[in-house]
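WARN no homologs supplied; continuing
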Amino acid sequence: MIKKTSLGLIEMSSIAAGMQAADIMLKTAEVELVVSRTICSGKYMTIIGGEVAAVRSSVETAVDTIGFGVVDFFVIPNVHPDLFPALSGHSNVELLQALGILESFSVASLIEAADAAVKAASVKLIEIRLAMALGGKAFCTITGEVAAVQSAVDAGALVIQEKGLLTNKVVIAQPRPELLREMV
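OK structure emitted
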């Protein structure tokens, strides 16, 4: 098993180029495939995990080799460990405190924002939903005490705003517990 301290993503406008990028990333260095699939609206996304240097090498090689169709990409070194279960839908949140929601027009900017949010305050990442039946958008949900959730949402929103892709940000102080059943 590969130690995942870093996360890398390539978001492509071409499905064929996206599959090619995934293959290049996996062949370039010792990385682990986290997610590789089509997303709305006709795009393809690949997320890998591993040591920082391996992830950086894999992403850069794929971007440099393909070039055509790259919508966005990133490498997040020292990624917060909550991102991996939230991406796979296996969050361990059982109690919903305040609820924070970040929504973006881009998969890449949303994941970067989720990482920034959970690093900014003592909160728990509930889920990250990526562009499936969302018209190409993505969102994440977090929970914790109201002040912490507000700080986290503000930090995450700033990351998305810098790319001009923020759809919305919301903090709900006392959400109904039924909302948790609809997540993950």
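The two ends are 25 Å apart (CA to CA).
OK
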